[in-house]
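Supplementary notes (optional reading)

For those who missed the lab, this is the record we used. Protein: Lysophospholipase. Length: 314 residues.
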Amino acid sequence: MLVPVDFRRRLPDGAIVDHWTAADGWPLRRFDWPADSPTPRGSILFQGGRGDIFEKYLETFVHWHNRGWSITSFDWRGQGGSGRLSADPHVGHVADFATFIADFRDFWQGWTAAAAGPRVLMGHSMGGHLVLRALAEGAAHPDAAVLVAPMLGLGSPLGARGGGWLARIMARIGDPARAAWKTNERPISPSPRQVLLTHDEDRYDDEMWWKAQQPDLVTGPPSWQWLAQAFGSTTALAADPRLARLDIPLLMLVADADKLVDPRVARRVAARLPDCAIMGFGAESAHEILREADPVRDRAIAAIDAFLDDRAPA
């Protein structure tokens, strides 16, 4: 199912890259690719993870668009093409994850007013966490939702409690917007960044190509404040009683060998959700399931398609 590199490295015909303005005037870079059919299959809002850019998922967008879906995505505030909240343009910073939810709530309201149904919400990694938090807080109510390697717990050698404590201390004793570490997706990692994300070198190179063409899209490591917020938000969401009352069908894809987020927490959260199917992957998959080698990616895409055909029919 590998899409030719020349297509993965250019915007598809008919796609529009523009900006959406948040309530406080902040511009967020957005991607829209309307379905070609006058009677579209439906609409997907796909949200990436920390430091992501929507160009990384063009190959997957092509697949869904070919099935008749309209596709929308936007870069989260403070990363990608949506500006920075730190003085250092290579640090992903946010003072409060509630800012992400406020942006998303407003975007969702405007998007759903124009998007053809069924309306599906998807999120990868941090995007998966924020999607589920938005559902719990009533910021969105899609017909179905898909969470891909969701950041429902962080991978930390100190555990959630110890990692959160350290992040909060470090955010208080210095500039909270300074980088928590220098390189890679996690500190003191023995594995190269590519191995933490995907076993597929070609797909990893796609991301590097886009960032070489547009260096302003590069985010870099998180700030200490981002890290403190991530630990706090994931801990609070995992214990949120509203999860048990969600009436939205969900599919959760989990990479059990994930070194960036904690798949055990994701499975525990999935067990609390009243209508959540779960698909697990073993050592064959790193964090970016939708950008993995074909055997993993094909299985994931097929599961999503089957889920949407069953739970969000045209």
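If you only remember one thing from this example: The radius of gyration is 18 Å.
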